């Protein structure tokens, strides 16, 4: 498995509380996900696979990992990414009855222009990242102005009005 096969679901906090747990800042789409096994991606692209021993979701989402040394190392480095394998995320979304757009083909004016390689929620709306056939990437808000159609059966997204977005 490569880092590119992992999907960011949040970041790890930078301190361990009195109960030995660390706060997680999860992307809104994943607030109610039950974490069991996950990947921590450090800034130097080192990846550690860990298991969640305990999780609490009272005021803040907090977890206790099975490897205390990795947990200490991760909290010392600010902004360690929490990620899951794409298959795990697809299973989660399928269970929730939601649609993930990753790997959907993207069309503009009846021509395929690339694929969706990432998607996230910026608190206002979903945003997809499109990788074009010539390996360029750009983001498109999933709003009526830019998305003409999402065809779940054929796994494709039809976009419009994206000329300026391609140039950013």
What's the quick description here?
The chain has helices spanning 68-76, 86-96, 163-167, and strands spanning 6-16, 22-26, 37-41, 47-57, 61-65, 81-85, 105-108, 111-121, 126-132, 137-141, 147-151, 156-159. By secondary structure, the protein is mainly β.
Q: What's the CATH class of the largest domain, please? A: Mainly Beta
Q: In percent, how helical is the residue content? A: 10-25%
Integer tally of domains: 2
Basic shape: elongated
Number of helices: 3
Largest sheet: 6 strands, antiparallel, barrel
What is the CATH superfamily label of the largest domain? RimM
Distance between the termini: 31 Å
* Helix/strand/pairing category: mainly beta
Q: Which residues sit in consecutive blocks of at least 5 with pLDDT less than 50?
A: none
> What's the architecture of the largest domain in CATH terms?
Beta Barrel
CATH-derived topology of the largest domain: Elongation Factor Tu (Ef-tu), domain 3
- Whole-angstrom Rg: 18 Å
Element order: H for helix, E for strand: EEEEEHEHEEEEEEH
Features:
single chain; 168 residues; mainly beta; Elongation Factor Tu (Ef-tu), domain 3; SH3 type barrels; six-stranded antiparallel beta barrel; 3 helices
Topology:
Blueprint: E1 6-16, E2 22-26, E3 37-41, E4 47-57, E5 61-65, H1 68-76, E6 81-85, H2 86-96, E7 105-108, E8 111-121, E9 126-132, E10 137-141, E11 147-151, E12 156-159, H3 163-167
Parallel strand pairs: 7-12
Antiparallel strand pairs: 1-2, 1-6, 2-5, 3-4, 3-6, 4-5, 7-8, 8-9, 9-10, 11-12
